[in-house]
Design a protein that fits this description.
By secondary structure, the protein is mainly alpha-helical. Helix content is 73%, strand content 4%. Helix 6 runs antiparallel to helix 7 and helix 7 packs antiparallel against helix 8. It holds the Pfam family GntR.
């Protein structure tokens, strides 16, 4: 039996407006949102209403309040927040298996669909990885490593796959920081270069092999 529909409360309306700004990238991850007085003026709501909306979005994982500093965007969507939480509580070997499935298929598709702009973006990330490794900057290395994989995924031109991967990228970056050190940097850089060359040459078999190589290395690091 159908039940009577309910109108949105004022708190829900405010929460949806803020969520919309996050999901359309007007407010990006890492950005501090405007202070309470400014938001109250823009939305024409009370402090209590605004705080309830922010509390709901914080619980959903979109926002994070830092005492004495402000409120920051910590995820680009509710789905992204959920995926991040799941990955954080998932065995790392299982996460690697999911990465392998996604990255292998994306690499294969990229060999068929990549354009020159895709190759340039992948190459740029790889060059930045090498520079970070040469400077022993692990945080920058982890950032560009994840960006490299995101660009390979993007080159598959499968939007759903790209969206899913973008949602897990923050958790992946933390995994890179935990599992990589510069002792094995040369291996990872060489296997990534092999993947780039395979995509450039449209060699599907070689692309899949390159993914297998660096995933197996990461697996060995965890064991």
């Amino acid at each position: 039996m159908l039940t009577q529909t309910q109108r949105l409360t004022l708190v829900e309306q405010v929460a949806y407006q803020i969520q919309g700004k996050i999901e359309n990238s007007e407010w990006q991850v890492g950005m501090r949102i405007p202070p309470e007085p400014e938001l109250m003026e823009q939305l024409q709501v009370s402090r209590n209403t605004l705080r309830e909306a922010i509390r709901a979005l914080t619980y959903a994982g979109l926002l994070k309040t830092r005492q004495g500093d402000g409120t920051y965007v910590c995820s680009s969507s509710v789905l992204g927040s959920v995926i991040k939480k799941v990955i954080q509580h998932t065995d790392k070997l299982e996460s690697l298996e999911v990465r392998y499935a996604l990255e292998r298929e994306a690499a294969a598709l990229a060999t068929l669909r990549r354009g020159e702009e895709d190759l340039e973006a992948i190459r740029t990330c790889l060059d930045q990885c090498r520079q970070a490794a040469s400077q022993q900057d692990l945080r920058a290395y982890a950032h560009w490593d994840v960006e490299f994989h995101k660009m390979v995924i993007a080159a598959s031109h499968n939007q759903l796959m790209a969206n899913l991967y973008n949602h897990i990228s923050e958790a992946l970056q933390n995994m890179v920081l935990e599992t990589k050190d510069f002792k094995n940097a040369a291996f990872y850089l060489d296997s990534h270069d092999l993947l780039y060359q395979a995509i450039a040459n449209q060699d599907c078999h070689q692309a899949e092999e390159a993914v297998r190589l660096y995933i197996e290395k990461a697996r060995a690091t965890l064991c």
